[in-house]
């Protein structure tokens, strides 16, 4: 089916996932029938959609008209025939039990049009087994959304044994049209990508404690502050539900063998109905205790190596089994798990040879199958390579992980590319930004720079507080980190080419300090800006105590820093921080327009104007000296001749920077 032909989508199941998927589809403009087995369930789901759309409109993430339009496109039904009778795509999100799902498909085939594609939102069950009970295995695939669908970017698109490539292409385009990022899972393998990585990690965390080799505290401190994942392993298990992870693990154990034998510690928790946050108690106590309080200083190198070794082995299993490539695995886990880096990259950085050695030692000591190194992993380690090849084989161009950097005409574009972490600024991002600024500066064609944040939630929510806390907050390291931010943003500020920051969404803390380094700032109306560092007991340590006052004046700078309030774009336009406020959908176009206009300006005059203004900040005489010297230099330039000639001839000048 051609993706453009899709108009009507049936979503089966109005529970958490079902109503979330229905909402996302309706927001993308599709007509959606949402079906559940009784009036109460389906009505509940509909009310949840209404509530969620309302929240999005309240937060200005969509307009009120868009919210109303999306709700109008959702029809709640109980009759299956009414739900699927004229559907182009049927997305099934009924309970995660093979027999319930099969029963649904047996009925659906009676009513759905023959050309309709079936997509199941299962998180781990076999697509091939489910497809068998339908009458169209080649038009059947997995379409695994993450919870909550309206906020989570990732959709795993999974091939069954007989799925046609066309079907996968269409469902990927459908996911894209819903604003999601699809990642293809080439083979129907238990847990697909994200669960195949996260669930064994949870199991190994439990085995570490079960065997007496580590405490929950140390494992979570290492996971969060050593490896840098968003949550401790036990904290994550409590968040997701220990029973949920346990059942996926049981299924993997059954399908993939003893390497996935669930740790008894997990079984005990499930038996005791201590399932995590939802029951008030899991590995942490959320009712009578303080929940997950994870120390920053209990990181252990041994635990880190063991967890990374397990992760590397899972990645190798997926790559060797031709389920997915390392970059697809990394993208899926970053988007689905909110990880700052993917497991393949982390394993490469650690060194696959060291991780294989760890696995071999553990295998020899315990005989446990999960420590048997995958052939793919051993081969790569023996060849001195990583999942991404060897460093020596890399090409000359810089590869960025946390940024997207491109040159379009005379404009260099730097996009902060950690949308899954609100484009927060990690140390790695600062280093990359430093490199990107140098590269654009040295690039012969770049005459203006545009700075943006990927995604629709944040320009940047500031320093990545979690990675800052890593290492127990070493003061000497923090001094260096502060200097790194100051210098990098200073480099942007003193770049020869003018810089435009186009701000959409949150622009907080270090994000605002970064924007302060730009020459012009435009922001969408819904943006919220501020220096909230005092709320955290910090100060704006990336130049914020100095640079902001030059733009808004000392009084306003103190107000912004001391109150730590969030300001809207209009207010900061009044303070002189924002040059122009636009509607959300116009921001990017306007940013490009402005950057292109500046790129068409006289480069030498622009460069010296920036230098004179910077030099004169604290020393007007120094600034005036730079200004007069520059004025003299300009007399001798082709650009001056071009400017004057164009003016006299009433034409647009074409400056060349000579
Ligand atoms: C020298 C420089 C110093 C600094 O920059 S210090 C940091 C200054 N920045 C802040 O204090 C902002 C902190 N963040 C927030 O206040 C809120 O977030 C927002 C207002 C930006 C958004 O709120 P909401 O829409 O309710 O989303 P959510 O659930 O709070 O955040 C989504 C995910 O993003 C993570 N996150 C947000 N900001 C940061 C940050 N600065 N460092 C690390 N993570 C951050 C959260 O934890 C969460 O993650 P999960 O989905 O895994 O729970």
Description:
The protein is α/β, with parallel strands linked by helices and 658 residues long. The chain has four domains: 3-185, NAD(P)-binding Rossmann-like Domain (Rossmann fold), CATH 3.40.50; 194-382, N-(1-d-carboxylethyl)-l-norvaline Dehydrogenase, domain 2 (Orthogonal Bundle); 403-598, 2-enoyl-CoA Hydratase, Chain A, domain 1 (Alpha-Beta Complex), CATH 3.90.226.10; 601-648, Orthogonal Bundle (Lyase 2-enoyl-coa Hydratase, Chain  A, domain 2). 50% of the residues lie in helices and 12% in strands. Helix 8 runs antiparallel to helix 13. The protein is globular. 49% of the residues are buried. Mean pLDDT is 93; it is low at 391-395. Ligand A1D88 binds next to helix 19 and strand 14. Residues 230, 338, 421-422, 424, 461-466, 485, 506, 508-510, 532-533, 536, 538, 540-542 line the site of ligand A1D88.
